[in-house]
Design a protein that fits this description.
Length: about 160
């Protein structure tokens, strides 16, 4: 998995309300609200259209990689799909990206609030969020959420037995 991709996904997921993003050498950074933010963004050539286009590209690459993993897990009879059929290293990548994409949807919602008066940008953010949400539903159908839930439940049970 590409570290920059995961870093950018985490940045998007960590956006707070009224934050904006800046792009520097292919890496996204959070630009918190300050009174000089507009001037700084103008001086460095940062604009919302370029940022949204970059986010769209990041999400497209992420979904392409995730789909390359999940598309290979249909069983021989082409009717049974099982998360357990994924190789362990690819399964781990998919889990990390699944969790990151869940956070990205929330972060995009907060970013959308920063651009609430720009219908073009909010529509673009909605489109990106919908792509992610549709893929997360596909992941749930193959058992990713159930796998994470059972893993968390097993971890809590182990944690409680250690305390006792």
């Amino acid at each position: 998995m590409i570290p920059d991709l995961l870093f950018n996904l985490n940045v998007i997921g960590n956006i707070k309300s009224q934050d904006k993003l800046i792009l520097n050498s292919g890496i996204l950074y959070i630009d918190p609200f300050t009174y000089t933010r507009a001037i700084r963004r103008k001086l460095f050539g940062q604009n919302r259209n370029n940022i949204i286009a970059f986010i769209s590209t990041i999400i497209s690459y992420t979904l392409l990689y995730c789909k390359s993993i999940t598309d290979n897990i249909i069983s021989h009879n082409d009717s049974v799909i099982c998360f357990d059929l994924i190789q362990p290293n690819l399964r781990n990548d998919l889990i990390v990206l699944y969790e990151s994409l869940n956070h990205v949807v929330k972060g995009l919602g907060r970013l959308k609030n920063s651009y609430i008066n720009d219908k073009s940008i909010t529509d673009s953010i909605d489109k990106i969020s919908l792509q992610i949400s549709n893929y997360l539903i596909e992941c749930n159908l193959i058992g990713v959420h159930n796998y994470l839930f059972s893993k968390e439940r097993n971890f809590r049970a182990t944690e409680q037995s250690i305390i006792i």
